[in-house]
Amino acid sequence: MKDGKLTKSTFECISSLSKVASFLDPDHYVIYDSRAIYTLNWLLFNLENEAALFPQPNGRSSDLAKFDMQTIFRLSKKKISYRSYKNAYHDYCNIVKHLNEEVFGEGSKPYLLEMLLFMVAPRWTVGSIEKSVTVNIENVA
């Protein structure tokens, strides 16, 4: 963790590993959770012209499972890429720390924003997707 890069096998258990890291050092590490990543990716997708998104761990939320973001992203034809597993977690921690200060003020703990991203995923993020994504299927003969 401390060297700033992860191996593929380490990243495969990042949801659990990040919980331990955030408990041991809450000023530098936050939880890399499926819901928080879902919300952050949706925000980045909508606010950035060329979004570098985060790999999303498997989650258990039935609300989030209703809308597969990969399909939405592909159908949008917008240029997106995904961060490498090697630095995705550390990039995520840095972004959350930066945005946390913007939202909650200097000196606030980064887990506040991580918890906000997590909390709004089932209602706000899914609601935003429902309001802004439509599919038009045309009959081609």
- State the total count of DSSP E strands: 2
Largest sheet: 2 strands, parallel
Tally of DSSP helical segments: 7
First-residue to last-residue Cα separation: 55 Å
Mean pLDDT: 91
Radius of gyration: 16 Å
What does this structure look like?
The chain is mainly alpha-helical and 141 residues long. The protein has one domain (8-131). The protein contains seven helices and two strands, in the order H-H-H-E-H-H-E-H-H. The protein has helices spanning 8-11, 14-24, 34-47, 62-65, 69-76, 88-104, 111-132, and strands spanning 51-53, 80-82. Strands 1-2 form a two-stranded parallel sheet. It is globular and about 60 Å long. The model has no long low-confidence stretch (mean pLDDT 91).
Any key phrases for this structure?
4% strand, mainly alpha, 141 residues, two-stranded parallel sheet, 7 helices, single chain
How do the strands and helices of this protein lay out in sequence?
Blueprint: H1 8-11, H2 14-24, H3 34-47, E1 51-53, H4 62-65, H5 69-76, E2 80-82, H6 88-104, H7 111-132
Parallel strand pairs: 1-2
Helix pairs in contact: 3-7, 6-7
Outline of the structure:
57% of the residues lie in helices and 4% in strands. It is mainly alpha-helical and 141 residues long.
